[in-house]
Specification:
Elements: E1 2-7, E2 12-23, H1 29-36, E3 43-50, E4 54-55, E5 58-59, E6 62-67, H2 69-87, E7 90-96, E8 98-100, E9 105-113, H3 116-133, E10 136-142, E11 145-148
Parallel strand pairs: 2-7
Antiparallel strand pairs: 1-2, 3-9, 4-5, 6-8, 6-10, 7-9, 10-11
Helix pairs in contact: 2-3
Length: 149
């Protein structure tokens, strides 16, 4: 998708945003992992966020995710580009929208870097920024009622 070139005097680093998805269909984690695969990168970290059956002391029977699709895709792309450039990473990110049940995969972030510490840092950056900056909202449903969170 987007490729970044950076030189440190000895090496040319290349990081690329490989995939950004916002979809109502189930997310294919292994496909996202395959998107970032590259023989130059030895550290591959995947964060998979799943719907919990209990949040705090409240049961959750389902969630509904809604998004401002255009803005969400633009913001997720920007976050992915920043991560690819900062960590010389291949990056893939995806988020579900629509109705999800406990155990369903809601969000996936995959980062491939030269080393594991960079891949962990990159992946944490991706999920933290998605949670903070992307216009995606969730409504929780349970026996106690429903609420936007």
């Amino acid at each position: 998708m987007f490729r970044f070139w950076r030189e440190d005097g000895h090496h040319v680093f290349v990081g690329e945003l490989k995939n950004v998805l916002l979809d109502s269909d189930p997310l294919n984690v292994s496909s996202l992992q395959a998107d970032v695969k590259d023989v130059r990168y030895g550290g591959v970290v995947t964060f998979t966020g799943e719907v919990r059956a209990v949040t705090g002391d409240l049961d959750t029977s389902k969630l509904i995710y809604e998004a401002h699709t255009t803005m969400a895709m633009r913001q997720m792309t920007l976050i992915g580009e920043q991560a690819a450039h900062k960590w010389d990473a291949n990056v893939a990110i995806a988020h579900r929208i629509g109705e999800l049940q406990p155990g369903d995969v809601a969000v996936v972030c995959v980062a491939a870097c030269a080393h594991r510490s960079e891949a962990f840092d990159c992946c944490r950056f991706l999920i933290d920024r998605i949670k903070e900056d992307v216009p995606i909202w969730k409504k929780e449903f349970g026996p106690q009622g429903e609420a936007w969170v």
